[in-house]
Amino acid sequence: MIEKEYYRFDELEKRFELSLSDLRYLVESSQIELTFYLEQTKLLIGGWLKEKGFVGFGSVYYRGLIRITKQKQNVLLSTNETSVEYIRILNREGISNPDEEYPFESDLPNSYLYAWQPRLLKTILWNEIPAKLFPKEQEHGYRVLSKGIRDIVKAVTGKELEVTDKNAELIKSIPEKTIFADGIELCLDDICLLHSDLVKIGVVKSSAAGETSKLSQPVKGEDSTSKRIDDLSELLVRVVEKHPEYNAKQYWRALERESEEVEGFRLIDKYNILTEVEGNQIRWQDRAGKPRKSVSFSSFTNRLTEARKKSQTEI
Fold it and tell me: Distance (Å, rounded) from C-alpha 87 to C-alpha 35?
């Protein structure tokens, strides 16, 4: 049999005896994360600003593997289809025609984009790049409706509809344009599993010791830490290596600042595990997006001690 980097849905049961029920269990138990193959599609790439919305870096065309949220994976496995607005790009080699110029007439912020911060693709060091479907832009619906009513009144009475000062101000406050997207439609046939995931769950054996999927390897220049520690501990090792002179409170403030950054601009938290650092708690999730138990400051200092030890042993 040909060993592939990924396998499509129709191959999984025939080749590996993985049923739909098996996939559902593996996803629900966070043992694997589904990937999907997306044909050539125009997208906006960017990141999320905490409690604000999506910040665009540029527009691109992309063909290749993507990931979606765990919630959407579960919806698809339950109903055989789903529509997604937000995805993560896995193969930057599949990106073409990047353009950093803002492509719309609509003012910012709006319901689809909070801000636009142009960024060259080569400066985005993430393994997985957040993206949204490139939206359509059209005249705002309320303006279209208002114009339609005036046209009907004129056609029936032969006179222009009188607009009060209050209504005129209301119409003036409505944006000229609006942008929207219907979403990316996915079905069971779009499901793919990486070879590395099949190795991970013991369905197949790795063909070579130490072999990993190209998609699972870090971007050149990133460090790799032991898989024996969780994602938050890995993050602490990285921040200790970057700022060895800090004390516990300075490390805490550094993580607080990091959690408030747009996802694509985070320098240390490259996998977006920090969801909130506030008061005496760090709220976080693992790389797969699964929420983990909050960490208090006292627990944080214990983790920090271990991170310092690990950092020193790897020098």
Answer: 10
